[in-house]
Amino acid sequence: MHELQSKMAQHQSSQSPWLLQLETHRAAIQDNKQRLKDLRERLRVSDVDVVLWGRVDELLGKRGLQNFVYEVALLELQRRAAKYLEILSEDSLRLELALDTQVCV
């Protein structure tokens, strides 16, 4: 009887190599599914970051903050130059500055 119980225990502990391989593949599939899910989330976050950094680049680029600073500086320069020209030329000379290639006449 003891021998029979021993053989049953041995048989239950020694699974078929096919079942072991199947379990290994199932575990790998689960790991890959989780990895795919994580990568998709990282891709979604990266897409959001690309849009955000594109907007930051636009705001701080040539047409954003940089352009605003130049416009303010030119307006201040134009205001001061107009003040001095008014005094020096009795208001007969005028200076207009522009950032664009279009010049106001």
How much of the polypeptide forms β-strand, as a percent range?
A: under 5%
The gross shape turns out to be rod-shaped
| Largest sheet properties | none
- Overall helicity: over 70%
Question: What's the total number of strands?
Answer: 0
Counting H and I runs of at least 4 residues, what is the number of helices? 3
Rg from alpha-carbon coordinates:
38 Å
> What is the multimeric organization of the chains shown?
single chain
Distance between the termini: 114 Å
Structural class category? mainly alpha
Q: Which residues sit in consecutive blocks of at least 5 with pLDDT less than 50?
A: none
Q: What is the element string, with H for helices and E for strands?
A: HHH
Mean pLDDT: 84
Note the main attributes of this structure.
single chain, mainly alpha, 105 residues
How would you characterize this protein structure?
It is a single chain. This protein is an all-alpha fold and 105 residues long. It has a domain at 17-60. The chain has three helices and no strands. The protein has helices at 2-13, 17-60, 65-89. The chain is rod-shaped and about 125 Å long. It starts with a helix and ends in a 16-residue tail after the last helix. The mean pLDDT is 84.
